[in-house]
Every structure is written in C-alpha cells, then in structure tokens.
Amino acid sequence: MTPRVREILSWYGSDNPGTLTNLARLLNHGRLAGTGKLVILPVDQGFEHGPARSFAKNADGYDPAYHFNLAIESGCNAYAAPLGFLEACARDYAGEIPLILKINNSDTLFGPKAPISALTSSVDDALRLGCVGIGFTIYPGSGERKQMYEEIAQAARRAKEAGLVVVIWSYPRGEQISKAGETAIDVVAYAAHIAAQLGAHIIKVKPPSAHIEQEAARKVYEAQGIRIETMADRVKHVVEAAFNGKRIVIFSGGEAKSTDELLEEIRGIAAGGGFGSIMGRNAFQRPKKEAIELLHKVQDIFRGQA
Predict the structure, then answer these.
(1) Which of 37, 160, 204, 206 is catalytic?
(2) pTM, whole model, 2 decimals?
(3) What class, spelled out in words, does domain 3-302 have in CATH?
(4) Which of 95, 215, 221, 305 could disulfide-link 226, Cβ–Cβ 3.0 to 4.6 Å?
C-alpha cells in the first residue's frame, strides 16, 4: 500500500472495509498501480450508440472477449461495461482485472428532450460477477434528473452496504443547456460537485471547455478571477469543485480524435491534477497493437513519464 493510495482511502471515512478494499484494488492494479491515478477502459458504446457506430472501425470489437483482453494487456486499472458484455466473459477472466458494472444505459433509437437512462442491471448482478463497483450515468439539467438522482441514491446505498465502489458518469444535458454548455467549465464543475454530493467515490466528467454557460456563474468567475484559459486551469477547477480534490475525478476521452490531439488533452488533464482517464472509443476503435501503445502513452503521462 503506497502512501498516496492510503491518503486517497482516508478521504472516504464513512465507507466500510469492503468498499475501501475494492477501491484499493482499483488503485493498485495495472501499470498505474500505487500512483493514485486511473486509466479505465469503458465499453458501453455498443448499447449507447449502436454496434456499427461503435465497432465497425475495428470489427474485433464486436467480440466481448476482445475488450477484456485489451484492458488486461494494456495494463488498465479496470474494465467497465453493461451486463451483457460482462456476463459473456466474466468467468473466463475472473480475477484478472477489476470490473465495473454499468447498471443503467440508454440508446439512440429515441431522442427525448429530457434524457434519462434505464436501469439495466443491479448491485446483485455486480456482486454475482465479482465486480469491484457499479457505474451509473446521470444527466444534470435533464427534466428527469429527479428520478435519476433518486435511483442512484438507492443504488449507491445498496452498493456501499455490499462493499462496492460507486462510479458516477455525470454528463450535463437537457432543454435548458446548450450544446456548448454541456462541456462549459461552470457546468462541468457543477456536474462533478453534484456527483460528489450524490455519494460517488469516482466521478467521470467530460474535459471542460472555456465556455461559461450560466450568466450568474460568469459574474462569479470574473469577480473571483477563476482561471479557465488552459485545460490544466479548467481541470484544476473541476477537481477543486469535487470537495477540494478529495474525490477521484477522471475525464472521458470523448469522440474519436487524432493521437496528437488526444495526448495533448491528456497532458492538460494531468497538469491540472486530474486523477486519470476513462477512454473507450479512442482506444478500442484502433487496431489492438495501436490501442495498447496509445493506452501506454496515456498511462505514462499520468505517471509523469511523458
């Protein structure tokens, strides 16, 4: 147990030994073990965006086993996926990599004005499959946020009783938020804080832009001189919004982009004190060898070696 991991565990004083053990398993696995940093492979895109959009660029990705192997061979801290993908291979890879069960999901076959994901699995499924935690998406700003907040409150309570880690994907979205506002610095920081208040151990948000969505927030940012010019500045502010850095905040890879663009973004996240990256399409849509090389470069940045 490194001093850094022990320090991070100390931030979660209300949690039982089971949850702390599973959080330690995440932090002590893979190439970043012991550093306090995380790189997680999430593969929920088939459910969320459709199989062709997700896997046609690299047809190996249609096979659930491919993603287990990619996460293991690249030295990721964990692999996150919906029920079906985990059930398909959890027995074959039992104990080889920490698993996170994504217990709610949505699809693109219907586009409601007020987005909300459906519950698609449970804490009991996560326990049965040997997972270290559950993942759950919320959409702050959605007209359905009341139901989502109540669902994750109940699921998080059950997960913590069972000794599991709670990971919240916090993606602002709704009728009163513009497209640019979904990644605005004030909105992303707010989303991270909401997830922390809902009891998340690990918070996943998108890398923030310098756009400010809310005029009421703009006045405060300007009056207090909050720096948002660079990615490092913005990430520092988002991490600060999550209990002054005492909650683990990791950042999504987002839509597919070039390697140089992606690594530049990762350097900004690392420089701002981000705890890591949760990278799906930018990894698994590449040939396996290239994907492993990319994930190693990302991990090296968070280790301070690149």
Answers:
(1) 204
(2) 0.97
(3) alpha beta
(4) 221
